[in-house]
Every structure is written in structure tokens, then in C-alpha cells.
């Protein structure tokens, strides 16, 4: 899921062809994997999931969700809107559940921004707070991933210098845009770069990346992959980046990247697909508390609605 997709959601809704093309690409990726490796690795992954893996995923998801909610609260406060931590955690769980069950991978975050915006009577600012929060998390994730890939063996290590140049160019573009648009620059400084904000945002984001990476490592072990952690970690970080791309309930690019990365590392595409399936199931189960939050919100809305 990309923050750019979040901020451009309204525009995307006016471009249904592009929206469906992205979903078709995700579906095509899964279809190619089925043709290439067959159904065996998918079924192996489903059979490998056990209670211990699901319990670990749920515990790690609690940690990462609290960190994400904390990060969101910090950014929102910088933009001048208050957000209690408990409410932020509940809303974030609901957002995760929607992201892993609906196509696109972004609708949960849109719902989170709109709901918070309505509660604070400023939908635009609510959406921007979510967009900045997601952007900050993805920026830290990219930096950590590039740092690990620069020192650890991986299929993309040779391309890291070009990636670093691309990141520097992207940072320069953001800086120029912030200078050109007063509102953008003001929100960037207040929400992310303020002295009281950025250390906490970076810490929260790093903990989120660590939690997701550990979940991937557990998924790999559950799927029967015995490669050392030093080899699996860079592959997992690549997979997590691919998981931010437009998808179908989380599925598509993640499985394609896992199959390619494992094959390129000599671990086998089938092992990669099985690992991705285990990871997908773990993430889905870990996000189920969001269904409870969603149901409770629906019940409260029904109770608050006038009769008739």
C-alpha cells in the first residue's frame, strides 16, 4: 500500500480503467505463479500454518499496530488535530482489516482518514494526516531496506548504488515541492520534521519494520525454509516493499516478489510461494481484531441512527 495511492484516491476513483488495470496486474501475477509452480506450493503453505505461527503473528501485529497508531497520533497532533491513542489503535486495526480484505490495499487507510476527518470536522486534514503518516513509515522502511541490502548478500545488491541515487533524487523533489507549496512545507515541518516529532516517528516506523520482518522470518521457518536469517532477512525486506504495491487483499505483488527473490537466491520459487502464503494467512488472522472494531462501529452507527 502506497501513501501516494492514498492521497490520489479521489483522482483514482475518476480513473476506473487505471484502477482495474492495477488489480488485473495483481491477478495476472498470481495466475502466472499458478502456471509456473502449480497449486502445490500454495496448498503446502496453507497446510504449514499452525497455531504457534498465528499466535506469534497476532502478538507482533499488536506491537506494530500500537506503533503505527502512535506514529499517526504524533503526525496528527503536528497538523493540529488531536487523536487519543486508544482510538488510534482501534482505527488502525480496522484499517488493516479492510486493507487485507478489499482490493487495492489502500481503502482501509482512506476510511481511516475520512472517519477521523469527520470526527474532527476537517476531512481534508484527516486524510492528509494519514497520508503523511504512511509516507513517513514507507520512507523509514525504504531507508532501512536499502541499508540492509547494501551490506547483506541479495539478488539486488549490485543495483543498490542506483537505488540510492534514486532516493536522493526523490528527496530533492520533495524538498523542492515543499518550498514551492507553503501548505505542504508547513505540514511537513509540523507533522514530521519538528524536533518533538521526528525521533518518535522514526522509532515507531523502525519498530514496525522490525515486527513485519520478524513475522516474515517466522513464516519462512513455518513453511520449512532452513536458510540462515542473514540470507532470509534481505529477501524479506524486499518482499515487504513489494507488499506496498497495489494488490488484491494483500495478494499479488508480494507472492511474485517472494517467488522471484527465493529463486534468485537459490532457495526455489516454490519455497518462496509457500512462505508468502503462510505470511499472508498470518497477516490476515492478525488483522481480525479489526473486524470486531468494524462491527462495533456499525452497531454504534445503527444505534445512533434515527428510527424510521
Report on this structure.
By secondary structure, the protein is mainly α. The chain has one domain (3-304). Helices cover 79% and strands 0% of the residues. The protein contains 15 helices and no strands. It has helices spanning 3-7, 9-13, 16-37, 40-48, 51-78, 85-99, 107-119, 123-151, 160-180, 182-193, 198-222, 229-242, 253-264, 269-286, 289-304. Helix 5 crosses helix 6 and helix 6 (85-99) runs antiparallel to helix 7. The protein is globular and about 50 Å long. The termini are far apart.
List the helices and strands and how they pair.
Layout: H1 3-7, H2 9-13, H3 16-37, H4 40-48, H5 51-78, H6 85-99, H7 107-119, H8 123-151, H9 160-180, H10 182-193, H11 198-222, H12 229-242, H13 253-264, H14 269-286, H15 289-304
Helix pairs in contact: 3-13, 4-14, 5-6, 5-8, 5-10, 5-11, 5-14, 6-7, 6-15, 7-8, 8-11, 8-12, 9-10, 11-12, 11-14, 12-13, 13-14
Structural class: mainly alpha
Rg, nearest Å: 20 Å
Please state the overall shape, judged from the principal axes of the Cα atoms: globular
User: Portion of residues in helices?
Assistant: over 70%
Number of strands: 0
Q: What's the SSE pattern?
A: HHHHHHHHHHHHHHH
- The DSSP helix count reads 15
* Percent of residues in β-strands: under 5%
- Major beta sheet, specifics? none
> What would the average pLDDT be, to the nearest integer?
87
**Euclidean distance between termini CA atoms:** 40 Å
Number of domain modules:
1
Low-confidence stretches: 9-14
Q: What is the oligomeric state here? A: single chain
Amino acid at each position: 500500500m502506497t501513501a501516494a495511492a492514498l492521497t490520489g484516491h479521489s483522482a483514482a476513483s475518476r480513473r476506473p480503467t487505471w484502477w482495474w488495470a492495477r488489480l488485473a496486474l495483481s491477478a495476472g501475477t498470481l495466475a502466472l505463479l499458478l502456471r509456473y509452480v502449480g497449486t502445490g506450493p500454495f496448498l503446502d503453505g496453507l497446510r504449514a500454518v499452525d497455531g504457534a505461527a498465528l499466535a506469534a503473528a497476532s502478538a507482533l501485529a499488536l506491537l506494530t499496530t500500537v506503533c503505527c497508531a502512535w506514529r499517526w497520533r504524533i503526525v496528527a497532533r503536528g497538523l493540529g488535530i488531536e487523536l487519543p491513542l486508544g482510538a488510534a489503535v482501534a482505527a488502525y486495526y480496522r484499517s488493516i482489516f479492510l486493507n487485507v480484505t478489499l482490493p487495492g490495499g489502500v481503502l482501509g487507510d482512506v476510511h481511516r482518514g475520512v472517519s477521523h476527518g469527520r470526527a474532527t470536522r476537517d476531512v481534508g486534514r484527516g486524510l492528509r494526516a494519514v497520508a503523511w503518516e504512511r509516507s513517513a513509515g514507507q520512507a523509514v522502511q525504504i531507508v532501512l531496506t536499502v541499508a540492509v541490502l547494501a551490506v547483506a548478500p541479495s539478488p539486488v545488491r549490485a543495483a543498490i548504488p542506483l537505488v540510492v541515487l534514486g532516493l536522493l533524487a526523490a528527496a530533492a523533489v520533495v524538498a523542492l515541492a515543499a518550498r514551492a507549496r507553503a501548505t505542504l512545507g508547513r505540514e511537513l515541518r509540523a507533522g514530521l520534521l519538528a524536533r518533538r516529532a521526528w525521533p518518535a516517528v522514526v522509532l515507531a516506523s523502525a519498530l514496525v519494520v522490525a515486527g513485519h520482518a520478524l513475522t516474515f522470518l517466522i513464516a519462512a521457518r513455518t513453511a520449512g525454509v532452513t536458510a540462515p536469517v542473514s540470507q532470509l532477512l534481505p529477501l524479506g525486506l524486499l518482499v515487504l516493499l513489494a507488499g506496498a504495491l497495489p494488490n488484491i487483499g494483500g495478494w499479488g505483488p508480494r507472492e511474485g516478489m517472494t517467488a522471484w527473490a527465493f529463486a534468485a537466491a537459490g532457495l526455489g520459487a516454490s519455497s518462496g510461494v509457500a512462505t508468502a502464503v503462510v505470511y499472508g494467512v498470518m497477516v490476515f488472522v492478525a488483522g481480525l481484531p479489526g473486524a470486531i472494531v468494524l462491527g462495533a462501529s456499525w452497531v454504534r452507527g445503527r444505534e445512533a441512527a434515527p428510527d424510521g
